[in-house]
Amino acid sequence: MKAILDCIPCFLQQALDAVRMASDDTRVHERVMHRVLAVVQEMTFQESPPQMGALIHRIIREQVGHPDPYHRAKQYYNSFARKLLPRLRRLRDDSTEPFAMAVRLAVAANIIDFALSARLDEDLVLQSLEQATSQPLAIDRLAALQEAVQRASSILYLADNAGEIVLDLLLVEMLPRGVVTVAVRGAPVINDATTEDALFAGLDKIANIIDNGTDIPGTVIGECSQQLRQLFASADLVISKGQGNYETLSDEQREIYHLLKVKCPLVARDLGCPVGGVVVMRRQGGMVT
């Protein structure tokens, strides 16, 4: 999915939010925004929003001298999500359809996304989780996903954000043991999950953890490590979490199950569903199947 002009305000707001997290110095804010505006001016809109976003966040890290401006926020939401786990596990396990509930809760956790809003708070996360138990799916291929899981002897799970990755446990615990690889970002960008977050979640106890070798807030296969590319090509099942992964993988030829909460009008338009919609979708060759 290629970026469009409507993405520009989002890029600029992301940049301003990130630099304010990293520094209180308004001179730094101005310097960063001038650099970002210069980059935006040269954009050709031939790449996906996450690829263009990566350029902006590299400028921010360079200018503020901080390798991970969102680190404190990531730690906060990892800890917050961990506190929720016992109650959500009971909710899943007491459900008449534990797998479906695990999927719903994991998708609801996709709200923990600072790429869309730095004004995220605990109430918004709790509201998303509460709605997940009963909200109709905007695109519903949940039954097909469950069948694919049962058939798979190798599963690649593409994680998205910190905080969210802790609640991904609810779903990964439902997958067959010994066949799951969870892939995270290769370096910090926005609040996307890295190996540090996966280890905090404890995913290494039930799955293999790898990073994808890039600082793009998505999964651009051509930019990823050879290990990730090989797993992507060979896995029986690929499960992709979140908008950034969807935006960068939507035209891939192989079958992918996308689990996400729709948080921007561009993705909503592409999927044909409303902002706020919960999506469990199978896509192949750029087509919903």
| Shape by Cα distribution | globular
CATH topology name of the largest domain, in short, is: Rossmann fold
Order of helices and strands: HHHHHHEHEHHEHEHEHEHEE
Average pLDDT over all residues: 94
Give the class-level CATH name of the largest domain.
Answer: Alpha Beta
Q: At CATH's second level, what is the architecture of the largest domain?
A: 3-Layer(aba) Sandwich
Descriptive terms for the model:
289 residues; alpha/beta; Helicase, Ruva Protein, domain 3; Rossmann fold; eight-stranded mixed sheet; 8 strands; 50% helix
How is this structure best summarized?
50% of the residues lie in helices and 12% in strands. The chain has 289 residues and is α/β, with parallel strands linked by helices.
Explain this structure.
- This protein is α/β, with parallel strands linked by helices and 289 residues long.
- It contains 13 helices and eight strands.
- Strands 1, 2, 3, 4, 5, 6, 7 and 8 form an eight-stranded mixed beta sheet that branches.
- The longest helix has 24 residues, at 71-94.
- It is globular.
- The relative contact order is 0.14.
- The model has no long low-confidence stretch (mean pLDDT 94).
